[in-house]
Specification:
Length: about 110
């Protein structure tokens, strides 16, 4: 028996595909201050957002489990222009590392001292 082959006709009408690619949710990793602000900013612009947070027993304790809680909500720095202008001249990266390790016993000392 001979096999017959037929070519599929090329579509000739308007495309049924959307001109816009589908918008996937934005994945935010971490429910600390930066993660939640990023999620709120994206959501306020109409984007769907999924926030992933490390294992937490109670949702109300998520803020306490974040790195924001560990950093006391600050972005610390040592030897800044603002410190020098305020008369603080005895600060250094080493003293900052010591402060972080003293305040957060769970911190990796090798990473803190980098």
């Amino acid at each position: 028996a001979a096999a017959s082959t037929t070519a599929a006709a090329a579509p000739t009408g308007p495309s049924t595909r959307s001109a816009e690619p589908p918008q996937l949710p934005i994945a935010i990793v971490g429910a600390g201050a930066a993660g939640l602000v990023a999620a709120l900013a994206a959501a306020s612009r109409g984007r769907r957002v999924v926030v992933f947070e490390k294992a937490v027993e109670k949702p109300s304790s998520a803020a306490n489990a974040s790195n924001t809680a560990r950093s006391t909500g600050l972005i610390p720095a040592a030897g800044t222009i603002q410190q020098r202008a305020a008369g603080v001249h005895d600060d250094s990266p080493e003293s900052l590392a010591a402060d972080i390790l003293r305040a957060n016993g769970g911190a990796d000392a090798a990473l803190v001292r980098r």
